[in-house]
Amino acid sequence: MSTAIKQPHEKELFGHPVGLYVLFFTEMWERFSYYGMRALLVLYLTSKTTDVNPGVGWTQGEALALYGWYTALVYIMSIPGGILADKFLGQKKSVILGAILLVIGHSVLAIEAMWAFYTGLAFIILGVGCLKPNISTMVGGLYKKGDVRRDKGFTIFYIGINIGAFLSGLVVGYVGEVHGWHYGFGLAGILMVLGLIQFLAGQKYLVHVGNYLGKSDKVEDQEAYKRPLNKIEKDRVIVLLISFLLIIAFFAAFEQAGGLMNIYAKEKTNRMLMGWEVPATWFQSLNSFFIITLGVGIAAFWAKRKLKGTEASSLFKMIIGLGITGIGFLFMSAAASEYDNAGTSAMYWLVLAYLFHTIGELCLSPVSLSFVTKLAPAKYASIMMGIYFATTGLGNKAAGLLGESSSVFGEFKVFTGIAIFCIGFAALVFIFFKKLKVLTHGAEDNEVDYSTKEAEGFELADN
Fold this sequence. Notes:
Layout: E1 3-5, E2 12-13, E3 16-17, H1 18-46, H2 60-76, H3 78-89, H4 91-109, H5 114-141, H6 149-179, H7 181-201, H8 219-226, H9 231-254, H10 260-267, E4 272-273, E5 276-277, H11 284-307, H12 314-342, H13 347-375, H14 381-409, H15 411-431, H16 433-438, H17 451-455, E6 460-462
Antiparallel strand pairs: 1-6, 2-3, 4-5
């Protein structure tokens, strides 16, 4: 296999396509709106109607049940969102449609009425379903096959997600919890408008990504769209579907953050700090803070392993990530044990839990996004990404069920059970790791760092 110099590469910033940063800020504001709303949802539903900041007055079980269904449907709708992009609109137009639906949804939530509450949730579910799988697929489309920068690009993109999530927990969480739930919902909608505006303004950097393949002028795109899948593509799809089991397990554990851990922070954690009570919603920003501060370092750690020839494949990282997440729940077990014995629980248990959950997430979540774009057949790229997000939705639903079970079994048993399952399941998948890696047919082999050549204005292409 030889190499030849091809056309100049697109404009770059900090060693990555400028389009990455357009997608970065779009997703940042989308996640600001989503996580801001998520931080308020359970607390709003469980707040008494007679409180100074009145809520709906639901029981904890009722609130966690709705939370589970809502977060599940948000991501399950990624499957029709992916089909819409691959079969009809393309990824860019689907992202625009999703952003518009999100603006409508968050705006309707600002109205103080239950019909508005349910209507707003419905619009958000549809909006995330259109936007989420397609904007993530577009990130992968910015990089050529075999470009080692792809994983790094997804980590940068993931940091954007978590800047939005970090700010939302502090800003939307504070406004909603202190000044009024519906003010918080409305603020989330206003910031989503910014995401839509900057995505539209950055279209010139996304000309060659996110387009509908069915109408492409390129012969290779038309052929890829029409021909059936070959054996290699089918094997890779099988590996993806198996890896999605790791995703379900991870999110069933990780999404306790917005449900059971959120309630635990509010009701059973001593949140006094130098005479001031820390808002419960602020703990939602710990995960994002750790991602922003640790994301680049963890990505560099894996990159160095790869350069040394040590195992650093995406599937390996995902297995390690699930195991580390399980370890994080041992700190929540310690917190629950402390509460059972002393009637209170220290904040540092939550901080340590979120730290380990974040390290696990950085090993698994951005890497799994990149993994989908490496293995998914081109004509089913958005659909496979949609299935990926649907599995996160199933994980979210499982998280809600686990949270509900705490009313029967208690927090200690639930947290400990999650820890044991995550660590055990990661070990089980690791046993079959080598066989699964063979089925990827070298999708991650021979990755090349194009940054040096492209800095000179060239790219390498296989003949």
